Amino acid sequence: MTDTTPAAPAAEAEAPARAPITRLWAYARRHLRLLAIGGALSFAGGLVGLVQPLIAMDVIDTLAANESLTRPLLYLAAVVVVGGALSALGPYLMQIAGQDVVLTVRKDLIGRLVRLQVAEVDRLKPGDLVSRLTSDTNLLRTVASTTVIGGVTDTFMILGGIGLMAWLDPVLFGTTMAMVVMVTVMMLFIMPRIQNATVDSQKALGDMGSLLERIFSAFRTVKASGAEDHEIARLEAAATTARDKGVKASLWEALAGVAAFMPVNIAFLLVLGVGGARVASGAMEVGTLIGFLLLLFYLMGPISGLVASLSQLQTGLAAIHRVEEVASLDSEAAQSEPRTTRSGGPAQVAFEDVTFRYADDLPFVHHGVSFASSGRGLTALVGPSGAGKTTVFSLIERFYPVTTGRVTVDGVDVRDWPLEDLRGIIGYVEQDAPVLDGTLRENLVMAAQDASEAEIEDVVKTARLTELVEKLPEGLDSRIGYRGTTLSGGERQRVAIARALLRKPRLLLLDEATSQLDAANEASLKQVMLDAAERTNVLVVAHRLSTVTSADQIVVFDTGVVRAVGTHAELVEKDELYRDLAASQLLTAA
Ligand code: ADP
Ligand code: MG
């Protein structure tokens, strides 16, 4: 492996995106049995319905013959019951199959979404991804159930009708076929446009979802800024766009209807004209002409059914297209070999001449960073805002691949570590310390599902959360709100630290919040950090002098390079930038 090889993407991500129709088939074929049974029952239900008029005739005959009505009425009742049952059961089974197909697609999509690479999620809109999972997949349901069976039935009926026409009269058949060719050409033109219009329309829905998501992710700021009217206007504009795109899709669908019926009507005229002339000249019998016209009339139903099925198919393909787009994004492979828990002491970390940029069209963030940290103790990363400190943690976690150079953990390039093993030994506390919707306990065990009650109690104590747990109405099982809105900043951060400690990390990465904490919170945070540093290797992006002065080693960053390494005393002595930062107390105030 060369230094520039990016982290291995998942095998599926490498496969070229398959044509939507192939994908649709791949999803639907797993549920063919249920579809076939449901289709057969629906069909049988229809046949039983056909028997009803025959029995009615029998009833009338029986009446006329003055015989007992019991037998035919019993037949009729049986037919009604059986027919009704079949007509309910068949479509129900097909709908189950449709839901099963949707479930298959969703499971596939969920796996891909959650395993997306961080870099992909950076540039995507969550709301749009949500709509792919919810509304796009839902569009598939009809296609995967009734459409196919309806389409096949209609196709057979049309082929049968056409065959009969050819047998009745080749000349009229030729006339009709010319129309069929016309319909086909127009459909070939219209169908892809229905698909594109549906993609646009679904995309507009996704955009609306993204906007709403944006508003709720900064809800207090929106309100505090008095930006409600502005945001409402944006959302309404997005809703209007969705409406317009939906109308456009309907227009193409309507045109598909016209394109199917116009030629049929023209065929009527032609058959009447050509056929009439041939009847007049004695080349054809009147009965044949009438039969031919009846056939044309009879074909109207299947034709409109087929056009509807084709439109639905295009909608389904559009949905698959949007679902498949997610497959073309880079995801992380799920680990195939079992996780090896390399228990042991503190993990070593080293940066070896690392350069890095977030994307090819962005400037470099790191221009040759080198430093190392090993053994128990506290390494503080300090430097001005934007110097690249948080990025150091992202590279250790392999959220992004380095551009050149190496990041090693225990002497092994992070690219050669099985990803889950690598992340398994690291505890990471993000700068804005996110808390997920759920209970406090769920938030803690997120990184260590098998943690025992004693272990949880232990980290609660270590992270100085005992008071909070006692204060909450249901202790550890209290819900702490969407994004932990019911907790203070300091509490959120300590929850995140407890979560990280619960997996007994061999390396703890701690990105201090820049916001001011009160003195009590700051002191307890520092104590938590020092306790952890007794046991393991702790790297902290430090914004507070009190953290830095306790560090065993300080790495000073300045615009993507390490400018000095040393202890507080050494650095005050030898590094000007550090001296300034230390003097200003809040080390990264912009
Ligand atoms: P620090 O933590 O030292 O304040 P960061 O490592 O967060 O700095 O960021 C360093 C630089 O990288 C900044 O200029 C920032 O704008 C940029 N940056 C950070 N994260 C991303 C990202 N996900 N995509 C693109 N640029 C980013
Ligand atoms: Mg930062």
TrEMBL record:
<keyword id="KW-0997">Cell inner membrane</keyword>
<keyword id="KW-0812">Transmembrane</keyword>
<dbReference type="InterPro" id="IPR003593">
    <property type="entry name" value="AAA+_ATPase"/>
</dbReference>
<dbReference type="InterPro" id="IPR027417">
    <property type="entry name" value="P-loop_NTPase"/>
</dbReference>
<protein>
    <submittedName>
        <fullName>ATP-binding cassette domain-containing protein</fullName>
    </submittedName>
</protein>
<keyword id="KW-1133">Transmembrane helix</keyword>
<dbReference type="InterPro" id="IPR036640">
    <property type="entry name" value="ABC1_TM_sf"/>
</dbReference>
<feature type="transmembrane region" description="Helical">
    <location>
        <begin position="32"/>
        <end position="55"/>
    </location>
</feature>
<dbReference type="GO" id="GO:0005886">
    <property type="term" value="C:plasma membrane"/>
</dbReference>
<comment type="similarity">
    <text>Belongs to the ABC transporter superfamily. Siderophore-Fe(3+) uptake transporter (SIUT) (TC 3.A.1.21) family.</text>
</comment>
<dbReference type="GO" id="GO:0016887">
    <property type="term" value="F:ATP hydrolysis activity"/>
</dbReference>
<feature type="domain" description="ABC transporter">
    <location>
        <begin position="349"/>
        <end position="584"/>
    </location>
</feature>
<dbReference type="Pfam" id="PF00005">
    <property type="entry name" value="ABC_tran"/>
</dbReference>
<keyword id="KW-0472">Membrane</keyword>
<feature type="transmembrane region" description="Helical">
    <location>
        <begin position="286"/>
        <end position="308"/>
    </location>
</feature>
<feature type="transmembrane region" description="Helical">
    <location>
        <begin position="75"/>
        <end position="94"/>
    </location>
</feature>
<dbReference type="InterPro" id="IPR017871">
    <property type="entry name" value="ABC_transporter-like_CS"/>
</dbReference>
<dbReference type="InterPro" id="IPR039421">
    <property type="entry name" value="Type_1_exporter"/>
</dbReference>
<feature type="domain" description="ABC transmembrane type-1">
    <location>
        <begin position="36"/>
        <end position="315"/>
    </location>
</feature>
<dbReference type="GO" id="GO:0005524">
    <property type="term" value="F:ATP binding"/>
</dbReference>
<keyword id="KW-0813">Transport</keyword>
<feature type="transmembrane region" description="Helical">
    <location>
        <begin position="171"/>
        <end position="191"/>
    </location>
</feature>
<feature type="transmembrane region" description="Helical">
    <location>
        <begin position="251"/>
        <end position="274"/>
    </location>
</feature>
<keyword id="KW-0067">ATP-binding</keyword>
<dbReference type="GO" id="GO:0015421">
    <property type="term" value="F:ABC-type oligopeptide transporter activity"/>
</dbReference>
<dbReference type="InterPro" id="IPR011527">
    <property type="entry name" value="ABC1_TM_dom"/>
</dbReference>
<keyword id="KW-1003">Cell membrane</keyword>
<dbReference type="Pfam" id="PF00664">
    <property type="entry name" value="ABC_membrane"/>
</dbReference>
<feature type="transmembrane region" description="Helical">
    <location>
        <begin position="142"/>
        <end position="165"/>
    </location>
</feature>
<dbReference type="InterPro" id="IPR003439">
    <property type="entry name" value="ABC_transporter-like_ATP-bd"/>
</dbReference>
<keyword id="KW-0547">Nucleotide-binding</keyword>
